[in-house]
Amino acid sequence: MTYNTIDDYILSQDEFIRPVLQQVRDRILSVEPTLQQKLAWGMPSFALVKGKKSKYVMHFAANKHHLGLYVGALSEIPFADDIIANHATTKAAIQMPYDSIDFDLVERLTKYKLDLAKAGIESK
Questions:
Q1: How far apart are CA 24 and CA 34, in angstroms?
Q2: DSSP-based three-state secondary structure for 88
Q3: How many Cα atoms within 13 Å fall on the side-chain side of residue 6?
Q4: How would you list the strands of the sheet with 88-89, edge to edge?
Q5: 55 closest CA partner among 117, 123, 121
Q6: N or C: which end of the chain has fewer CB atoms below 10 A?
Q7: What is the pLDDT of residues 83-92, one digit of tens each?
Q8: How far apart are the first and last CA of the chain?
Q9: Model's pTM, two decimal places?
Q10: pLDDT at 124 > cutoff 80
């Protein structure tokens, strides 16, 4: 399915997931309210815009049983060991069951990725 906005994306999800997705969105924006919100790769994405360039900071996607946070290479994140110890992960994603979303981690990851983007550091 194709969505036009993040709001459309959230509204298209199961009713019990919608508040979780909205809270994830709110927590990302609480770190930097000026992040550009758009859909990229079919999921809500947030980017830091500097002039004509933008750098993605965070993406998330609703899956059947979990939320996927797409943060780039986990191996580059200094606190990755804590993430891996407490969550299912892939090389570039963190999976959190809807009933146990770590909203503080969402903020921490957003801040870390935002700091990299502001410093002009490319992350994978």
A1: 16
A2: strand
A3: 18
A4: 36-40, 43-50, 53-62, 66-70, 93-97, 88-89
A5: 117
A6: N
A7: 999 999 999 9
A8: 27
A9: 0.95
A10: no
